[in-house]
Amino acid sequence: MNRAIIYAVIGTLVVMGVVFGAGPIQRRFRELRSDQALISGDTGDVMASATYQRFQARREAIIAMREDLRRLVSAESAFIADSGRPTTVLLPPYGFASARGNLGPTIQIKPDRWIGTMTSNSTTMMCQVTSLYDTIRMRYGPGQIDCLGESAVDSAWAVAQREAAAEPPPPPPLAPEPVPEPDTMPAVPRPRPHRNWGPVNNKPPPMPWIVENECPGEYCSLGRWAACSTITAFPSKQRSRPAFELHSGEEFTALKGDLHVEVPGLVVFRDTVSNPPIEHEGDDSIQFTPVDTLYLLDDMSEGYLHWWYRGRAAVGYQFWYDRPDKDLAPHPAAPVALIRRTKSVWWVRVRNARGREGWVEYDWRKMARDDRMDELSRCLPTTKG
After folding, report:
1. Residue 297: which of 267, 321, 336 has the closest Cα?
2. Which one of 81, 116, 160, 272 has the minimum C-beta count within 10 Å?
3. Is 157 exposed, middle or buried (0-12, 13-18, 19+ CB in 10 A)?
4. What are residue 125's phi and psi, to 5 degrees?
5. Are the CB atoms for 295 and 325 separated by under 8 Å?
């Protein structure tokens, strides 16, 4: 009797196990059948495999999010350079349209950093970039873009990437070359010096930036000048009470000139780029990153200029494409872009025929110089013989 009861209990447990386990078994069977169908369509080529195609949308989404975050770093860096503070809303000319399918960016401002986040309709992953700054010294640190979320470590794509990234075995060591005698050894060239620009510092230069005793432009000269129209002279280098006037056709003497940069030009970077080295300066090229801002001061000649970079002035050479004013909005594909021109005033100290002296703002339309780039005849009255 006891044995019959035991058999009945065992049979009941077996039946209950089959009933409750049927659902998970069926679901597992369907998953195995789906995986089998996926594998059966695989060609063996990683780039053409079904597993690779399965993660293609996610890879493309990550690439698009990273590219938009690089653009965000450039735009936010330009805004900080102009205003001295970060912002959560980038309006024109700093704002940009995100790639199709991307959501954001959203910007969070912390006491010591700002954080940009980008999401996508094509994946649950999100990408972030963090840029540190010091509000006292206005120094900014380049951010690294990180993408977080679901993992693809076990996918065929990840395996292929790890294999491609594996370093090849080191080559066998070469036999040492014979060392020549001391008197026949070639001279070793001295390494070219490289400027140490220090930490990232996007603080603008002090304004106005004044260059005294300056005659800007090629072949510029002082001395004998002429007025093309009425010119107002001031007692000092500021627009105040007039001192006297010069009239059309009147000759006068230009004594000296001081250039006042009132608003520096602005160059921003969307990628890491290097400018060509200046041979006569003996310096290697500078490596600019998307967190850098280059301020343009005064033009010298033939492409050379003074600029302000990482908290100090230096001589540089124009290596970006200079577009017309109406096209100054940064081109989406340009790694380096000029987004604002320099605004400056050249103050010239002049003396009229009566010996009175004052300062005038140089305007090519109102005055003419006697040099190779200009001629007095365009402002002096013509005489008929």
Report:
1. 267
2. 272
3. buried
4. -75, 155
5. no
- How many other C-beta atoms can be found within 10 angstroms of the C-beta atom of residue 208? 15
CA dihedral (191, 196, 200, 202) positive or negative: negative
**Measured between alpha carbons, how far is 262 from 300 in angstroms, rounded to an integer?**
17
Q: Which residues pair with 345 in a beta bridge?
A: 260
Question: What residues have CB less than 8 Å from 193, skipping those under 6 apart?
Answer: 282, 283, 284
Instruction: Please state the domain count of the chain.
Output: 2
Residue of higher predicted confidence among 144 and 158: 144
> Is residue 224 domain-shared with residue 119, that is, in the same domain?
no
* 35 pLDDT more than 60: no
Helix or strand holding residue 231 (H, E): strand 231-233
Q: Torsion angle of alpha carbons 92, 96, 101, 105, nearest 10°? A: -80
Q: What is the DSSP letter of 170?
A: P
Within 13 Å, how many C-alpha atoms sit on residue 374's CB side? 25
- The one-letter code for the residue type at 130 is T
pLDDT per residue over 299-348, tens digit each? 877 778 899 999 989 888 888 877 666 656 556 667 888 888 899 999 99
pLDDT confidence of residue 61: 86
330, 268 contact by CB (below 8 A): yes
| Domain end marker among 125, 150, 175 | 150
Pairing mode, strands 146-148 and 244-246: unpaired
CB 198 within 8 A of CB 338: no
Verify that 123 and 224 share a domain, yes or no.
no
Lowest mean pLDDT among 134-143, 194-203, 310-319: 134-143
Around Cβ 104, how many Cβ atoms within 10 Å?
17
Q: What is the pLDDT of residues 235-277, one digit of tens each?
A: 999 998 999 999 999 999 999 999 999 999 999 888 888 877 6
- Return all residues near 150 (Cβ < 8 A) that are at least 6 apart: 58, 123, 124, 125
Residue 46 belongs to a domain: no
**Displacement of CA 178 from its chain's centroid (Å):** 48
The C-alpha atoms of residue 150 and residue 130 are separated, in whole angstroms, by 21
Domain final position from 126, 150, 174: 150
**What is the C-alpha separation between 370 and 374, in angstroms, rounded?**
6
Whether the pLDDT of residue 153 is over 50: the answer is: no
